[in-house]
Write a structure and sequence with these properties.
The protein is α+β, with helices and mostly antiparallel strands. It is about 30% helix and about 10% strand. It is built from 3 helices and 2 strands; from the N terminus they run βαααβ. Strands 1-2 form a two-stranded antiparallel sheet.
Length: about 90
C-alpha cells in the first residue's frame, strides 16, 4: 500500500529497462495464496520461475497464465484480493 500511512518513509530509485522488458507488479493476495497444506504460492521461487518460463507470451497471456496458476494452486479459494499489473516496453 502506497500513501496509506502518512508518516511512512519510502525509498526512491531508478531502474533501466530494455526493449521487451516487463515490470510485473502484484499484491500479496497472489504471493500469499495458500494451498490446502498451508504453503504459499510465493514460496519457493514459483513466481520468478513462471515468469521466466513464459517470458515469450504477450502481457495478456502472461497475466492469464499467472492468475490461472495461482487459482489452481489454491484450489480457486483466494483468501485476499489478487491484483496484477504488467507493464511492457
Amino acid at each position: 500500500v502506497l500513501g496509506l500511512f502518512p508518516h511512512t518513509g519510502y525509498e526512491q530509485a531508478l531502474a533501466s529497462f530494455n526493449l521487451r522488458d516487463r515490470l510485473v507488479l502484484l499484491t500479496d493476495g497472489i504471493t500469499e495464496a495458500s494451498n490446502p497444506e498451508g504453503e504459499q504460492f510465493g514460496d519457493g521461487g514459483r513466481i520468478p520461475d513462471l515468469l521466466s518460463r513464459n517470458r515469450r507470451l504477450t502481457s495478456e497471456q502472461l497475466k492469464d497464465t499467472l492468475l490461472d496458476a495461482v487459482a489452481s494452486f489454491c484450489h480457486r479459494s483466494l483468501q485476499d484480493d489478487a491484483a496484477l499489473m504488467i507493464l511492457s516496453l
